[in-house]
Design goal:
The protein has 137 residues and is of the alpha+beta class. It has a single domain, classed as VC0802-like (2-Layer Sandwich). The protein is 15% helix and 36% strand. The chain has two helices and seven strands. Strands 1, 2, 3, 4, 5, 6 and 7 form a seven-stranded mixed β-sheet that branches. Strand 5 and strand 6 form a beta hairpin. The protein starts with 11 loop residues before the first strand and ends with a strand. It comes from Nonomuraea guangzhouensis. InterPro entries: A9CJY8-like_N (IPR049447), CASTOR_ACT_dom (IPR027795), CASTOR_mTORC1 (IPR051719), UCP008459 (IPR016540). Pfam families: A9CJY8-like_N (PF21631), ACT_7 (PF13840).
Amino acid sequence: MTETSPAPPRVTLRVLPETYAVCRMNPATEHTVPVAGTGSLYCLTRTADELSLVCPEALAPRAEARVEPGWTCLVVAGPLDFSLTGILASIAGPLTEANIPIFVVSTYDTDYVLVRSEQADAAFATLAAAGHTVTPV
């Protein structure tokens, strides 16, 4: 008797209207960080090795950071329960197969998946083909 794996979860992803930047700064240096609360996503993470910032591209601290501009962000409709499994895998898997790199930010309530803006249309189509619902801006 063979067991069948459950179907991967299907989610609704909403495209955020801004274009984002992913920034890397030295955590040991004082920085002037843009004001939080502007835009639909602003995430600042400090580790022993880096200070990472995801923010609207217009707020990227170009003089103080290595900045990777040009990201489109999709937010998974949430909140997501902590007991759920496979949400990110169901998104990352098809995008990996389509050779579309991602950058992910997770929060208490949900996940944010960023793709390069020039690959956004391909990412939307790939996710839709995988059974997800993508709600554009």
